[in-house]
C-alpha cells in the first residue's frame, strides 16, 4: 500500500536507511532477526540506480551489519555513527571515539548472569543491555549502565532503545554519519533522505532536513513497519529502472 505522506524515491536522492525496525522486523533477540530474502540484492540494485548513494545508518556494529546484509557492503554509520565507512569502503576516523573498557563489560556480564532473559551485546564502541526477555529488569539495566557512567559521564551517553539501554560514545550519533558522508561523492550534491523508526534516528532525520532533504519516520510517515518501507524501496527501484529503460529507447 502507498503511504500518502511519503514521497516516492527520486534519482537525485541520497538514501540513509536505519536497519532494525526500519528495514528489518524487530525480533525477540538481536541475533534472532531475519533479513527478508532478496533485501540485500534489492538495496544493492537501488544503490546502483542512485549512483551508489545509499548508506546504512545503524546502532549495530559494522561487522554485524555486514553479516546481516551480505554480500552487500554498503557505506554507512555503524554503532550509532561511531564507525563510519565511505562509498569506497574506506573506514573514516576509525579510532576517533572511545571504546567501552573491558572492565565495564566484565562487570556487566556478572550482573547480567544473575538476570535471566537479559542480553549483553558488546560492540566496538558501545554496549547494550536488552531486557525484552525480562521486562521487569528495565530499571535494573538502566541503573547498571548509569552506574558505569559515574566516573566517565562525559565519554559516553546513555540511550534508551527498543526494550534496551545502550552506551554510545559521546560525539557519535546518526547526524554525524549523514553530515560526513554528504561531504563526498556519491552523496555530495544529492538530496539526503533519512528513514528511521527510533529515537536515535531523529538526529539523522534532522540532519537530512537541515541539508534540504527529508526525514521520514516509519510509524508516523509510512504508517506501518519495515514491510511498508521495503515495499517503498521495491517500488522506487522498479520505477527508477523503468525511467532508465525509457531514456534508452
Ligand atoms: O539503529 P538500528 O539499526 O535501529 O539498531 C538499534 C539497535 O537494534 C538492535 O536492537 C533492537 O533490535 C533487536 C532485534 O530486533 C531487538 O531484539 C532489541 O530489543 C532492539 O533494541 C541491536 O541489537 C542494537 O545493537 C542496535 O543498537
Report what the structure shows.
Pathway: Glycan biosynthesis; trehalose biosynthesis. One of its GO terms (molecular function) is trehalose-phosphatase activity. Removes the phosphate from trehalose 6-phosphate to produce free trehalose. This is Trehalose 6-phosphate phosphatase. There is one protein chain. With 249 residues, the chain is an alpha/beta fold. The protein folds into 2 domains: 13-96 and 172-248, HAD superfamily/HAD-like (Rossmann fold); 102-169, 2-Layer Sandwich (Alpha-Beta Plaits), CATH 3.30.70.1020. Helices cover 33% and strands 20% of the residues. It contains 7 helices and 11 strands. The protein has helices spanning 39-49, 62-69, 102-112, 138-148, 174-181, 201-210, 226-248; strands at 13-17, 54-57, 76-78, 83-85, 91-92, 119-123, 126-130, 156-161, 164-169, 191-196, 214-217. The strands form 2 sheets. It has a 7-stranded mixed beta sheet, with helices on both faces. Strands 6-7-9-8 form a 4-stranded antiparallel beta sheet, covered by helices on one side. Strand 6 and strand 7 form a beta hairpin. The protein is globular, with a radius of gyration of 18 Å. It binds the ligand O=P(O)(O)OC[C@H]1O[C@H](O[C@H]2O[C@H](CO)[C@@H](O)[C@H](O)[C@H]2O)[C@H](O)[C@@H](O)[C@@H]1O. Ligand L263DTV3 binds next to strand 7 and strand 9.
